[in-house]
TrEMBL record, chain A:
Enzyme class: translocase
TM region(s), chain numbering: 52-77, 97-120, 132-154, 178-202, 214-236, 276-295, 304-323, 343-361, 368-393, 413-432, 444-462, 482-508, 594-613, 619-639, 671-695, 715-736, 743-769, 781-804, 825-848
Protein name: cytochrome-c oxidase
Organism field: Salipiger aestuarii
Pfam families: COX1
Automatic annotation (TrEMBL), chain B:
Protein task: Subunits I and II form the functional core of the enzyme complex. Electrons originating in cytochrome c are transferred via heme a and Cu(A) to the binuclear center formed by heme a3 and Cu(B).
InterPro entries with a match to the protein in the record: CcO_II, CcO_II-like_C, Copper_CuA, Cupredoxin, Cyt_c-like_dom, Cyt_c-like_dom_sf, Cyt_c_oxidase_su2
Identification of the protein by name: Cytochrome aa3 subunit 2
Organism taxonomic ancestry: Bacteria, Pseudomonadati, Pseudomonadota, Alphaproteobacteria, Rhodobacterales
Cytochrome c domain boundaries: 226-318
UniProt xrefs under NCBIfam families: CoxB (TIGR02866)
Transmembrane annotation, as ranges: 35-58, 70-95
Any single Gene Ontology cellular-component annotation: membrane
TrEMBL record, chain C:
Transmembrane segments: 27-52, 64-82, 109-135
Keywords: Membrane, Transmembrane, Transmembrane helix
Full protein name: Uncharacterized protein
Organism: Salipiger aestuarii
Domain of life the protein comes from: Bacteria
Amino acid sequence: MTQEIDLSKLPPPAPYDEARDKAQRSRLAKAWQGPPGWKIVSAVNNSFIGKWYLLTSFAFFVFAGILALMIRVQLAAPNNDLFGQQLYNQLFTLHGTAMMFLFAVPIFEAVAILVLPEILGARDLPFPRLSAFGYWCFLIGGVFVCGSILFGVAPDGGWFMYTPLSSNEEYSGLGADIWLLGLSFIEVSSIAAAVELIVGVLKCRPPGMRLNLMPLYCWYVLVVAGMILFAFPPLIAGDLLLEMERAFGWAFFDVDRGGDPLLWQHLFWIFGHPEVYIIFLPSIALIATMLPTFAGRPMVGHSWIVLSAIGVAFLSFGLWVHHMFTTGLPEISLGFFSAASEAVAVPTGIQIFCFIATMLVSKVRPSVPMLFAGGALAIFVFGGLTGVMVALVPFDWQAHDSYFVVAHLHYTLIGGMLFPLMAGVCYWYPFVTQKAMNARASRWAFWLMFGGFNLAFLPMHWTGIMGMPRRVWTYDLTDGWAVLNMVSTVGAFVFATGFAVLAINVLWPRGKAPFVARNLWNAGTMEWAAEVPGKPWGVRSIPYIHTRYPLWEQPGLVDGIDRGEWFLPDAAEGKRELIVTDILDARPLHVQRVGGPTFLTLGSAFCLGAVFILATYHLWALALAFGAGFVGFTLWWLWTGTSEIPERPHKDAGRGLTLPTYAQGNRSPGWWAVFITMTGDMTAFMGLVFSYFFYWTALPDFPPAASQLPAFGGLLAGLAALIAAWLMTVAARSLLGQGARRAAMALLVGSVPVAAAGLGGWAWAAWAVGLDPTSHSFDAMVWMLILWMGLHLIPNAIMQIYVAARIWADICNPEYRADLMNLTLFGHFLALTAIVIFALLAVFPLMMGAA
Amino acid sequence: MRNLTLLTVPLLAGCAGRHNWLSSAGAEADRVEGLFWVLLIGAAVIWSAVIGAAVYAQRRQVDPGLEHQARWFIVWGGAVIPTVLVCALLIWGLVILRDITPDKGDLTVRVDGERWWWRVTYDGPDGDVVTANEIRLPLDQTALFRLTSDDVIHSFWVPAIGGKMDMIPGRETTLALTPNKTGNWGGLCAEYCGGAHALMRFDTVVMEPDAFDAWLAAEAAPARVAPDDPGFAVFRDEGCGACHTIRGTDARGPVGPDLTHVGARARLGAGIYAMTADNMARWITDTHAMKPDADMPPYPDLSGARLEALVTFLLSLDHAE
Amino acid sequence: MRYESDKQPSRFGPPGYAPRVIDQGSVWIMVAAPTLWALHFVASYVVAAVWCARIGPSLTEPRWIIAGMAVVCVALIVWLATQAVRRYGGVFVIFEEITESSERGRDKFIGHVSLLLCILSGVAIAFTVIPGFVFGSC
């Protein structure tokens, strides 16, 4: 297996040979070339997916921005009846929804997918087809949600969808279902991207890039993807509860049936507040990446920025109730969240001070990206300071749901996210297109945007102080808000003009314009090592990195890369290959083969999208048919594109480095992806557990008397069967390892009916005592937990049979059994879920009854 | 659609800014106002210092030897000083919160949020006194509001007097307000409640305590309705009593606002239109033009003498001796 | 500093053979202190919520429960901080970036960041205790 390699003492590269270089380049090009013509939609490489993701997110931004302008037009004058109540309510709901779910979060993923592999000197992310799948899900879901306004059925319950306004059919219609199902679908793609980015940062760094040498951008991506993993799942759990209430009348939020509308607010804001930092941190990361470039020196306080990113990530999970300060919770509870909301200002501020400290010891070259960064600083610091204000409960009782908060949140999001993003667009435009933007037009764009923004949003603080509440479509002249609103409207249009100038500048066709110089800004990070004009493979050979700013600190690096002197300079087998390294020190572990262009992910995403869209209209039979299509496409994709047995167990990666070509267990990125996905899944499950205990604190009859509890015997028998099924999978893994293929297959297939029997036992236990999910929140909660188990057993059963089939086909065998190891890992999480559900359904009510 | 500005301007000309937090019309608002000015000045100083530091950093000569100081700058400017400041603010904010949330008040007012109006109930000497969309409060007394909702979440807010509190189905929340300036202050629904959220308002009239007591007594009295009032006949024939209550008559509908003394209120439609005969007539016949989605069905067939009689009757339901 | 040898004796078997999460060289110490903050935060919230919903308006007992938990958590954080200093070589303020390409450099970096996170988490826990001493009842 792998030898201990001293990367700094590699044998010298073979002397340069032009013929060899040419041959290698043509083989690399063949392996990495995007598909021709219209087949380009089957591309999966990050450079394609990233660009599409970016453009799609910006398209949704423009859409949501147009909605915002319509809002501003409606509010420009008092007693204006231009759009009217119904449309206005849809406008602001969709504006918030699209900005948050279809722009702010996806744009992080878009930028990361586009530049992260390049910063890491990698040729792609570890699961390119998963990125493609996520992208198509995002596109389909986003178009579905946004398109609804053209048919007048857009959601109109606010982007926060508070129950009972959103749960009661009397108050809300199809729009609420479109919101719930459309966005759940998109959240799935966000989590897919998060998994990929985490594995990308941890396992796909270039050899030698230890944690202390990792660029700040990668730290931020790691932290933010981790936050997505813990923030989005509770919302998915909430969406599930809410949609079950809407579609089937399950009692979760209806007070008459033991539900509680505040539960939704908790689940929503446990997602919603971290989300603000999920949006903010990656954009600050852009500034942290470009500031050293223009300062011409490393960042001062690199480690303090890492501290600040991690600190913010944690503290941001302790803020959610500050959106609920006016819901009448006990003052001491508000106090905790006020405390965390104040505390988070400290690490947030540290980042800003690191930037200023860097500027103190250098001379920053004036440039368009730095202009946007400066604007971001001015706006964001202001928004942060009003944030400190609204974090104080008494102040918030006045400011909450007034235009003061509208102003505050736009200062933080536009200052903390949009302006840095624009800086990033200007900074990386030459990297992506290899052409230069028109700097003069960009400067115009900046000043229009900066001026327009402040003109629009600075007066809004005062509008709020004058008592204007949010989400009102009209007001009276005598309210005294007319002049301020008119000013805001004018500012909004100036701001939009500025953005339009920038957008035109970006989209301007520059086919004949000259290419920019390589490493145009003289940056120190690896993405600028790319050749001009660009090559499909990204980096000619994957170098050994032993500094934070390799292009500054490792002289001759670029030449060595170009001559193919480093690792994987060739694609001899015609396969797309990456180097997987270890988490701490980025020591090369193995060569990972990744998938190339395919239509399978497209089909898979299309079918899954159809399932969600059809479910919105309660077309269950069709939805089921497309569900089968989704499973079919996904299995086909997995079967043909993952865990292939390599043609030989090792290969020469260049410079005397011989690496395995297959990995399994916790050495393989796939295992990590399953582990990380299931961590997210457990977080969603924790959302359900939280709901259970929330009802317990809020309701005197939760859990109810013993006679209404699910039968203990049935629950215990069910648990026993589920655990038995899990043990059978575990046994199959070790038996296969010992070469007993038939026994392993039998156990895998045999565990499916055993698990089904276990689930049946639970269902019987609930059904026998007449638990009806539409009658009371306890009944609904019991059935929801059983349903949760069922929703996991279905994919589990499919994968059990899939792996058995792989064993039968000898693609999964004693030597190469990554599939079975990943499946077993999934099984571990399932067993844990089963035990917790049993504790909630059987043990906890008993304990409470005894007390 | 709501081309009524001309009608409302004269009525409210003197009331511009009646929703302003900085009106100093309540003890709670005063506490927040004091906090606000300190925060504002502090924020201005900090913002100027941070941006000033950034600008200064660019204007001075580069001195790489400053890296030592730059690092201490991060420690002190980024970490230590902000920690101390936010800690002090946190404690101050919590103390204010404690002070403005007393357990008891001088009087209790129950307000129930409806789509899209306010049901207001006072504890009168002889039981509940129910009214709607207009709250009267005695000067310098702490009113404890007990807030509920039967449909969706609303939020009760009189910015000039104090902060807001949500009204949540299945719960009762409380809010203390101590008005300290007489006048007519605006009240709003602050939590988006669907449909006509923008048109869910109320008046808050702060009165001298004696005047308040007289008002409450008058409000508690049943309506004076002449048995042969032609307007009341229309009211009865059209079935208005199925939804509305007029105490002292057989109209006991619990759905819509209590109309016992509707003529004594300054506004109709939940604080959005002046209580005039024209507005009332239009409200009855063309409700949704004045307030889209309102639960009240319009009566477009009412017209002429019958409509006039009904409007006259409703406006006569006041406190006049 | 920049071109220093990468060679360090490895005490951990073949490189990257398993995610070394427990022993020295673990990254988990970086998230340990903030996790303690999170646990203390959630526990405080739960204690207060359950107390106010089920037991009574007086907050005297929860106040001391929360403070007691804070003492325990801060003690654990102090222990973590000593680990970060002693075993990882972490320091509070660095005057030169830790860019050494070696296991020692990486450890020093992790120790340094962990130490900073310990301090931040300790302060955040102290913040959480404050409300309990301002409010006497629910």
